[in-house]
From TrEMBL:
Residue spans of biased composition, Polar residues class: 1-13, 21-33
Keywords from the UniProt entry: Membrane, Repeat
GO MF annotations, alphabetized: neurexin family protein binding
Pfam families per UniProt: C2
Protein's name according to its UniProt entry: C2 domain-containing protein
Annotated InterPro entries: C2_dom, C2_domain_sf, Synaptotagmin, SYTL1-5_C2B
SUPFAM superfamilies per UniProt: C2 domain (Calcium/lipid-binding domain, CaLB)
Organism (species): Tenebrio molitor (Yellow mealworm beetle)
Length: 387
């Protein structure tokens, strides 16, 4: 595995009995070309912070955070949300993809109250990725409150990558004039989710909730492996005690911000072992050309360090877009440390690791000679320096 240096609240299933599922009547429906203002609605999506703990099972299925209705596109509150959606989740290990089987909905709210019907379709994101490429949707079923979709939506993402994602499923009425109506949502955190049973389950559709005030911008994910190699006590340099080595394998990043006119970036990853900001601490991966999903598989090596020193230091990884003619643009970063806020008793702002940054660093310190791997969301800002 060692590469060369050159190289919330969860959705709760509704208690619908199997017999009730078999008795669901579907109004005859037909596929209808999905030509609407759905792309405009993408701009309404905003990021939220997920909660890691799952709520206990019950009769309610609370959503966490949702969308704005901005600039008039996408209407909320035109109908009272009701009904249920049946879907199942399965991880395809061979294809490295999450497969979401959207089976059907029942008892949806009618947008056309006079004819008691709607034209529903289902849309899915894996938040916090709110990009157009991160959207999946079913075909529209016309003139029905009980649409049967029987479609599988696929997201190509690693199993580790799902740890930081939240499934956000929404049901919409497709309006031929472009003002789609919100019919309900289901929100489900995927952290610690076990994908061992693909059987579709019924979930209650929920009203949208008000957006959080403390939303953060999603900058993508980075997959990193860490390992501390203890000193070989049989090898001694001239008059010097043998010390250890920190190995940092930067594997890849996903869903980075596209800053080029062609909708891509030229990303590279840079590393410092703080507080050292000198040239001896600075290391870089090669530049990955024209991609927002770079694969580097590149190892940074920091020699002559001990576990005790690493407990007082911070590994800072930042991702940049390479620009030959201007300054490189910051795309996001992470900091690994014990998050104490102090360096040998002195307060510093860079010992600020939290969440997976902290737990991965701690796991590395506790398990010498073992690789530890994590998928982390890039922070939208750090105390960045020029690259």
């Amino acid at each position: 595995m060692l590469a060369s240096r050159n190289g919330s609240k969860s959705a709760t299933p509704s208690p619908v009995a199997p017999s009730s599922r078999r008795g669901t009547a579907s109004v005859p429906s037909q596929d209808w070309p999905n030509v609407n203002a759905d792309d405009d609605i993408d701009r309404l999506v905003v990021m939220h912070q997920t909660r890691s703990s799952l709520s206990s099972l019950g009769l309610r299925s609370d959503s966490m955070a949702s969308v704005y209705s901005g600039a008039g596109e996408g209407r909320y509150g035109t109908v009272a949300v009701r009904g249920q959606v049946e879907f199942g989740l399965q991880y395809n290990y061979k294809a490295r993809a999450l497969e979401i089987h959207i089976k059907q909905c029942k008892d949806l709210a009618p947008v056309d109250a006079k004819r008691n019907r709607s034209d529903p379709y289902v849309k899915v994101y894996l938040l916090p990725d709110k990009s157009k490429s991160g959207k999946r949707k079913t075909k529209v079923k016309k003139h029905t409150l009980n649409p049967v979709f029987d479609e599988t939506l696929k997201f190509h993402i690693s199993l580790n990558g799902l740890e930081t994602r939240t499934l956000w499923l929404t049901v919409w009425h497709s309006d031929m004039f472009g003002r789609n109506d919100f019919l309900g949502e289901v929100m489900m955190t995927l952290e610690n989710k076990v994908f061992d049973d693909p059987t579709p389950v019924w979930y209650n559709l929920q009203e949208r909730t008000e957006p959080f005030d403390d939303m953060l911008s999603f900058k993508g994910d980075i997959i990193v492996c860490l390992k501390f190699v203890p000193p070989d006590m049989t090898v001694h340099k001239k008059g010097k005690r043998s010390r250890g080595t920190l190995h940092v394998l930067v594997k890849e990043a996903k869903s980075l911000t596209a800053v080029k006119a062609n909708g891509t970036s030229d990303p590279f990853c840079k590393s410092y072992l703080l507080p050292d900001k000198g040239r001896s601490s600075k290391q870089k991966t090669p530049v990955a050309k024209r991609t927002v999903n770079p694969v580097w598989n590149y190892t940074f090596i920091y020699d002559d360090v001990t576990l005790q020193e690493l407990a007082e230091r911070c590994l800072e990884l930042t991702v940049w877009d390479h620009d030959r003619l201007a300054s490189n643009e910051f795309l996001g970063g992470v900091r690994f440390s014990l998050g104490t806020g102090k360096h040998y008793g002195k307060s510093v702002d860079w010992m600020d690791a939290t969440g997976k940054e902290l737990t991965l660093w701690k796991s590395m310190l506790e398990r010498p000679n073992f690789w530890v791997e994590g998928c982390l969301s890039l922070r939208p800002s750090l105390d960045t320096r020029t690259s």
